[in-house]
Structure prediction request, 377 residues.
Amino acid sequence: MLKRSSKWLAFVALAMLSAFGVTACGSDTATSTSGDAEGQTVGFLYVGPKNDFGYNQAAYEGSLEVEKNVPGTKLIQAENVPETSEASRVMEKMIKDGATTIFATSYGHLQPMLAVAKKHPEVTFEHQGGVKSGANVGTYFGQIYEAQYLTGMAAGLSTKSNKLGYVVAVPIPQTLLNINAFELGAQSVNPKAKTTVVFTGSWCDPAKQKEAADTLIQGGADVLSQHQDCTKTIVETTEKAGAMSVGYHADASSLAPNGWLTGSVWNWGPLYTDIVKTIGEGKWKGSKYDADYRVGFADSDVIELAPFGSAVTPEVEKQVLAKQEEMKAKDFYPFEGPVVDQAGKTQIPKGENPTPAELETTDYLVQGVVGKIPTGK
Prediction:
């Protein structure tokens, strides 16, 4: 069983204190009808802008599918909501304006959501990627690390230098899982491939992103991936340098016509729609959505591979897609043991396959990753 460390808890706290000083905005509202999937008012919070070529854009586009597919739905949209008490204020305003369902989409929105949920048992809350649910709070997420394993394969097969780069925001379990999956995927097809990681300390700071990307490229990395909310800067910097890109969150292939390989992207619309319908029909309690819901390739289309770019050969594409089919058939799991960390310690014994809940306590980097988890101040 994997354990949470005090270091991990400190990083979670750090991630939740990250602030984005832009005022949230809302739309017109209407009161929802109890027990009716139609006519609901649903609030969505995003930590960044809705057009970031990344995490927030993917969530925003998913929300529009709810409005399209559930007749009469009214959305209250709030972008650039900090992971602070400001998130609580925004949610309270949404409820005042008629919201009976609220989706908070950023990791650090969880604690504010839990606090607001206690005050409003009549409202249903869903958190994206959270690790704690409640009486009227559910969490959901996709096992995006499965797609990251596949993009790591594409990177490992495409690199000429055997040096891969990874620009990361903060070291929470989700980011560490993605780094590890990427490197394990690369190792599976190219044992010489190593991934150098740089932490920026921010979900979206273009200046830090460019500095990190430039440093990795100057160090010899010819394929860059990332776990940032806004992805545009890193993809453009990589393309300009003549290196190859692996995208994340949303399809940014248009930014890299020469160096794009593929990417891990979200398809939130169908899941958001089903959650809203389930709530509107009065069936949320006792459903798969009222606790911690996790899905991968075998269970859902929440996660997808972005289109392959011109930098990918037919043979590389064939190998990656074959492995994806194995995942869909549950014949392959990215973190089936043995998995060994940087210190040589076996974190997952041979033959074991941790549950998603266990994987979400990850606080280490695997062998083959260059760089250390920041210790904080």
